[in-house]
Amino acid sequence: MKIGFIGAGKVGFSLGKFLSLGDAEITGYYSKTFENAKEAAQFTNSYAYNSLEDLTKNCDTIFITVPDNFIQEIYEQLCKFKIKNKIICHTSGVLSAKYVFHNIESYGAYGLSIHPLFPISSKTSSYKNLKDAFFCLEGNTDCIKIFDRLLTNLGSKTQIIEADSKSEYHAGCVIASNFMCGLINQSIKLLENCGFTSEEAKKAIEPLVRANIDNIFEHGTIKALTGPIERCDTNTIKKHLSILKTDEEYQLYISLSKQLLKISQLKNKDRDYKELIKILEEERNPI
Prior knowledge:
Blueprint: E1 2-6, H1 10-20, E2 25-30, H2 34-44, E3 47-49, H3 52-57, E4 61-64, H4 68-78, E5 87-90, H5 97-100, E6 110-117, E7 134-139, H6 141-153, E8 157-160, H7 166-176, H8 178-192, H9 198-219, H10 221-224, H11 228-231, H12 234-243, H13 247-267, H14 274-281
Parallel strand pairs: 1-2, 1-4, 2-3, 4-5, 5-6, 7-8
Antiparallel strand pairs: 6-7
């Protein structure tokens, strides 16, 4: 398999390097900035193309690793070339191959989406962790089999997903990953209001966050849940709500508390949460 990449950002770098560790040959990279293509080619011991058509000619599989808003545009450019019998892949979590490459069969080519469930934050080091990542595959059945075998041989796990499920799937991934950054940032802000520096706040909550995450994955969310919502500590909840200065902070706390309440009711089936439910449903009094 000869794989070429369109787009030389973090995802293109990382996937190219990772796949090169298996049975795939990385042919090279094309990027709107040629210097980026050269850098990626050097990192993967491949070739930097300054012509999209030349890259297309020299590959049997093409990965489109650009921001989601540009995937369709790149695909339409590829359709101007000879892509018969080629596999065209994108790496978007939310977009499906079925809809982005909706007419690909008329060109005799095959469409696939491959999304790594991993926060690729570094061009040069994230690939080392992809062997521990899940990859979600969607698209042409035969292509799924090819990449399922390639990825599992590299140590990764795979999951096949239907095209119509991709938006819901990706929302779930974002909540578990990106939203965590927002929650940690909000926690740090509140501690800064109490006199912590940003660094002190991060160090203070790190053991709390790590222990909680470990408990969730070891025991599940129901057994891992502790805190004032689970205990139905209504006085504590009222005090928390009283210090939240903005509607945004208040609504975030309420929304997450309602999610925790659902878990708490599963954990403590005999506990009366009526007063807590009332507090969480009350309109906020202007501050």
